[in-house]
Amino acid sequence: MSTPWPRASYFNDGTAAARHAMEDLELVERANWLELYRRKSDDSYWRLTAAEKYEQRFLIRIENVQGWSSFDSAPLERQLLLERRGGLGKEACITQGCSQPVVLGSAFCLEHTYERGVRK
Ligand SMILES: [Zn+2]
Fold first, then answer.
1. Of 52 and 107, which is predicted with more confidence?
2. Phi, psi torsion values for 27, nearest 5 degrees
3. Looking at the record's lineage, which domain of life comes first (predicted)?
4. Strand, coil or helix: what is 108?
5. Backbone angles phi, psi at 45, to 5 degrees
6. Average of pLDDT values for 110-116?
7. Measured in angstroms, how far is the CA atom of residue 51 from the centroid of ligand 1?
């Protein structure tokens, strides 16, 4: 029996959680700074951003293996960012022309915070 993993999560090298996950993953393919893994215990597929390229790595479940390297995980990453920050604030984003509420701890809305390269 294997515990289900969240659809998307932060992957932090050197942590017990990351080591534990890696024990269950085998590398299938690499492309464009992305790595495709198969989870041995339930035969599911997962994508990890390459360690050399990205400051923050994400472990994302891939439903369609065919298009694994082009799958757009930005919405899932934005959702994680929002959850990690604890939600939205009352003020509006300071980007000109944007009236979306800010992410807590940011002067920008979710879209514009993410756009600036912030991932957590
Ligand atoms: Zn904005």
1. 107
2. -70, 130
3. Bacteria
4. coil
5. -115, 140
6. 96
7. 29
Q: How far is the CA of 110 from the centre of ligand 1 (A)?
A: 7
The model carries a pTM of: 0.89
pLDDT value at 97 more than 80: yes
Dist. CA 73 → ligand 1 center (Å): 20
Using the mean position of ligand 1's atoms as its centre, give its distance from the Cα of residue 102 in Å: 7
Q: What is the pLDDT of residue 52?
A: 79
Distance CA(80)–CA(87), nearest Å, equals 10
Q: Strand locations in 32-109, DSSP E? A: 34-39, 44-49, 57-62, 88-92, 101-103
| C-alpha of residue 80 to centroid of ligand 1, in Å | 17
Q: Provide the pLDDT confidence category of residue 50 given band limits of 50, 70 and 90.
A: confident
Cα of 84 from ligand 1 centre, angstroms: 18
C-alpha of residue 100 to centroid of ligand 1, in Å: 5
CA–centroid distance, 99 to ligand 1, in Å, is 6
**d(C-alpha 54, C-alpha 33), whole Å:** 8
